Amino acid sequence: MTVLSNHLTRTGEFGLYCTVEESVDSLLRSCESFGLNLPHNLQITDFTELRRENENMDYLKFTRRMIEHFKQQHGHRFTCFVLDSLGAIYSLTTVDEQMRKKMFGFFDFLRSQNLNVFIITERNVGSHAELGGNEGFLADSIISLGLDRRNGTIVRTLQIEKMRHVRHSMEKQAIEVGPQGPVILGPLFD
User: What 3-state DSSP class applies to 57?
Assistant: First the structure.
């Protein structure tokens, strides 16, 4: 959230953050506890009420329509979209061949909108970047945030596992999260 907020504050662009499992109030309390002031050009929406009201909701279709609405409203200023989280959407739907096709179409749609997209997923340590079977292949980049124990201390880490069209380090980096966002401290060595 810090990276997104800083970017939107600096550029004046518009961003949309969709949370599936956390209410807007809860997310705002979390940001406040970290001392993060969210910019006015960031729209936060949550699907918690929709989940309660409609068990058969097509979340990808709804998200697509919401993106189209904000693109129409803000035009080229709408540059950033966050979906938190894909795993929560999967927990509310049936993951089958039809869902995989919908996911392929959804990623294709996101690319066509000329957005910087962050899709958050949770996974077990050491597992692949797929939940339903194809997200790791569809994503242009996979950035893994985690924890590592070093010298009796727990260290936050960042690792770029995949980034299309960019030569990048595959080394796990130690990071520190400060008031201005994450700061890379350097590679972790075994």
Answer: coil
